[in-house]
């Protein structure tokens, strides 16, 4: 007699949804890492695939599984691990000329509907598949609203769906879905089990330009008695307190390591702080000083295997500065450039006079760059998008996003109203004549939850509260 089937999880994973939102979540700070000051994403984030599967399976069996995303670098090992070790069928698509994902959502939606339909049809004519369908759970890792129609088709086939995503990345429509077969879960609460940080640089090391010399420092003296107590982990533990994005590039000599700060403009400030931090233990020098002292044009670095390349563009600026040439100029008595702005146009000394330094940063670390094409591009995109906070915008419409005429009129007509609490509680009046202008919700559709940041219910009605 055949044994009764065990509960089985069929995974459908939107790779971009995991990584882009995870990098944003990590940059905002958590119990392991402080919030970053100079980046809204943390590309050092890594995933423990085994723990991801084990955490979401919860002791159940893993069934056929699918991973969707854009084509990764040739030496990326994460996709290979999904495919070879964890039995995922990977579906990879090329990005378009504008670096936008194409075909990923459609492919995932097609597989959701196809797998559900096949299981439903077979269950109608076969008792074994009927039991299998009863024990099957579709684990869908996404938050995109585009996936809602195929998810509904799965639910219509009487198959359970566990939706996993980041709290801020899950469309509010999933919370208002009435089917009892759908459960919405947050990866935020499982972050410490699944993800970790790797401070090694993941980009391919190029002998012609292994690091950006205008944004790198060299820590020397690991072979000295005082330096033996320090390793890469202890170095990283100290540097993360500064809340700047950094990468560690080890040296083959094991006597020094390079630390690259891709988003820091004033590297001299970082050198000064590092010298205070490691005083009496390590010697901290700039790359031009290091290259002059040891007569090296480029550092001898170790190429680390790429564990995962970030999906989003880096915010760093690339320098055309030649470290060998700078070393020669220092030797000839010419002043050594002290920041990336000096390296590019020689006007770095004028930046403070022009008010480019951050007045709130009493240590003078950060500068506001003259031009940031990436930032300008993101600003232009926001101006064409509706504000996600809608009428609850804390900036009362003075933000980078678009607001409807109705919202702008509300801000103008109610200058003293705190719109951050708009429609978060039910109206207690039996007959309210203010209609949509009332600050309280009259129907569930008008409600907004401060806890899960989605509509369809008020804060005190949230099932996750």
From TrEMBL:
Biased composition range(s): Basic and acidic residues: 342-360
Record region (Disordered): 314-383
Gene3D superfamilies in the cross-refs: 5'-nuclease
Name of the molecule in the record: Uncharacterized protein
Lineage, opening ranks: Eukaryota, Fungi, Dikarya, Ascomycota, Pezizomycotina
Organism, as annotated: Hapsidospora chrysogenum (strain ATCC 11550 / CBS 779.69 / DSM 880 / IAM 14645 / JCM 23072 / IMI 49137)
